[in-house]
Amino acid sequence: MFFPCIPWNTDAPVDHRPYGTMALVALHSGLFFARTIPAWLASAGMVSEELAFAIGVFNPFFWITGDIADGAWLRLLLDALFLWGFGLIVEGKLGWYRFVPIYFLFAIAHAIATERLAIALAHRTDLPLALGGELGSTAAVYAVAAMAFVWAPRNDVRCLAWIWFKGYGYALPVPALLFVLVLADAGLAWMSGNVAAIALSHATGFVIGFVAAAVLLLLRGVNCQGWDLLSVVLGRTGDVDLEAMRGYQHRPDEQSGLGDDYFARRHRAGLEILRTHLANRDATAALELHHRMAAKIRDWQLPEAELVGLIDLLNERRSYPASIPLMFEHLRRFPGHCGPMRLELAAILLHEENRPGKALGVLERIPEGALPEELFAARDELLREANERAVEGEIELEDDV
Predict the structure, then answer these.
(1) Chain-centre distance of CA 209, in angstroms?
(2) What mean pLDDT value characterizes the chain?
(3) 188-205 pLDDT, tens per residue?
(4) What is the DSSP string of 165-176?
(5) C-alpha 394: how far from its chain's center?
(6) Beta pairing partners, 171
């Protein structure tokens, strides 16, 4: 028993579990095995050819099944393995609710492109218009592979080489895994004796996926953490430390499934990435990651050092609407270290936000001994100015901090 390349995991930062990928692998397998049970197909009023996409026949259902209903078990195995390997990355960034519809749209787009190309060739050459069925073209898998290539060209896919009864683990970069797919696919095409047609079909699928990935990237519909193909080519990488991520992903005690400590592991990984953003002084990426992790990871909170670092970056950029809620969070969570933070927050509320009532409430709640002596004069000056401006204007309600 020899399987040289079985993809099973990736070091790419992902935000979603591969539910959609598992469902699509099951769909490929289900349609294949359904075709191998003639009695079932006959009782259902179906024959295998009805699952194939026929050139010149308008039927969107068969546009999809023509890509998904594999015609041979080797083709099914190839589709399942590489759909899993590349789908981990693509669905991990999109989520199943976007990945699965896009996969079906790839199949439909490929069917339309194939039909238009066949009709154009029939009109411009002496070749007859092929009305036969096309089954299991793998074009949608190539489209997913193209998306992974655009979004994670420097990431690895963990693979397994199974020799007799023993497995050997190794890592392949995404482009290398794509090369393995092309080699395996070329072997199957050579065995079928239809190399040119299969190559053209799969190249069409790759182009469709490449264009879709580029459009989503340019429209900011996906977050590649600065390691997409464009960033790699232009030398703009570095928002995420890939080596640190690989060190996290490849620790033996962290590889065996999700387990009960899934959220704790996600918390640690997210915190490592956020620290990289702070070290790179990328306030926008750090704030976006903080909000995304807070929405997805229960009990997500930044340690005091990282929270203060993010606040300082935002204040340097005068992003006060974003920093003020974080400053109030710091006051609630770390009351013992609140003196200088209250003073800074009061100055922002008074001078930048024109909210003297809020500033006054923040200043009056500075505990005894929370301020160094050298800041007493600054506090007294802010108190005087806040009182004067609060009397002149509308007094606001104080925050409960």
Answers:
(1) 15
(2) 77
(3) 878 776 677 778 788 888
(4) TEEEEEEEEHHH
(5) 47
(6) 158
Alpha-carbon span 343 to 394, nearest angstrom: 22
Residues of the chain with CATH 1.25.40.10: 242-392
State how far the Cα of 229 lies from the Cα of 94, in Å rounded to an integer.
17
Q: What is the CATH number of domain 2-224?
A: 1.20.1540.10
CATH 1.20.1540.10 range(s) for the chain read 2-224
How far is the C-alpha of 15 from the C-alpha of 93, rounded, in Å? 6
CATH architecture, domain defined by 242-392: Alpha Horseshoe (1.25)
Contacts of 43 (CB under 8 A, 6+ apart): none
Task: Name the least confident of 145-154, 206-215, 222-231, 242-251.
Answer: 242-251
CA dist 292 → 11, 94, 287, 398 (Å):
19, 14, 9, 29
Taking the model in full, what pTM does it have? 0.57
d(CA 13, CA 226): 11
The end-to-end CA distance of the chain, in Å, is 67
